[in-house]
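Need the bound structure for XIL, inputs here:
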Amino acid sequence: MRRTFRGHLATLAVVAGLAACSPAQTLREEADGREVLVGAAARAYLLTEGRYVTTLAREYNLLEPENELKWEAIHPAPQVFDFLPGDQLVEFGRLHRMKVRGHCLVWGRYVPRWLSDGHYSADQLRQLLHEHISQVVSHYKGKVFAWDVINEAMDENGRLRSSLWYDQPGIGEAGRGPAYIEQGFRWAHEADPEALLFYNEAEGEALNVKSDALYAMVRDFKRRGVPIDGVGLQMHILDLKPDIAGITANIRRLTGLGLQVHITELDVALPVEGEGRPRNAADWQRQAEIYRSVALACFSQPGCTAIQTWGFTDKYSWIRNWTKGNKGSPLLFDRDYVPKPAYFAFRDVLRSLPLHVGAPVQ
Ligand code: XIL
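Answer from helper R.:
Posting the output first, comments after.
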């Protein structure tokens, strides 16, 4: 008799539990219809892993090739374009009704050896860059809806970094400020006038000398009719102390120019122990609160239309390499694809947004 009663209780508890968390909506179900995009960087070589693909397709309505469209990968020799890995991700996106962001066309890093050591003149580099942008953007015309045209062009003081494209020797615009960046936007626009074009930057998320310089540059672009549609804020958070008020204000001033903001590479790194495990549950909670605050800072403003994390499972994140093993566990799903507290905090924010019944997001 007693056992039966207990059995009943157990059944009731299960039913109650199911009712409490149903309907169990995924991130993309919450995001679809709210005019926002939730995305993740993805790697083509992982599309063979069952849990990787089911999680990616189930949870996100946006994806971005993590490395496959960078110069080094897509243009490995002077006359060779390797579109295959990028195409695989784009096709995956199409099959699963996900938008695709393109990353990136002009960056001083991850350029192939043949180019960096090629001793090309400024005129030759100009031609090479024009050709590269035309080929890559045309190849993905109608498939990639937004491009990071330029990535990380500024140093921490907001000055233009020395690079192959700017002044070493550059494309013929050295010493003319962001003229080479403007040229990149014009060429990308020429190749696909429908694509949204972004300037993507790191460490300019809150209010500081770098984000001031970024703001001044894109305001000038806007005023002069340079075809720029948005700013990508990378948002790699390495210290558990993001300045949320500053981030909110920065998003406000950028969107105030009539530009979109996408959070493009969000991750929240935790200190880790030997095997890459986080120290304690409190860190997971802290991480969840940061995801919640960043999501709110973005999605509470109409011009902030996408949040993308840099990967989605802790199993595959660039953070451990980048921090030489000191930090890790930065994403919404753990190494076994189990959603973490950060996942639920992020989803709560999506749920709190008003539902839209209008046109889908552009
Ligand atoms: C990183 C990738 O995640 C790594 O896999 C790769 O080895 C190096 O590049 N800012 C960017 C991204 O814009 O392209 C970088 O991605 C992370 C920092």
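Comments: The longest helix spans residues 2-21. The radius of gyration is 22 Å.
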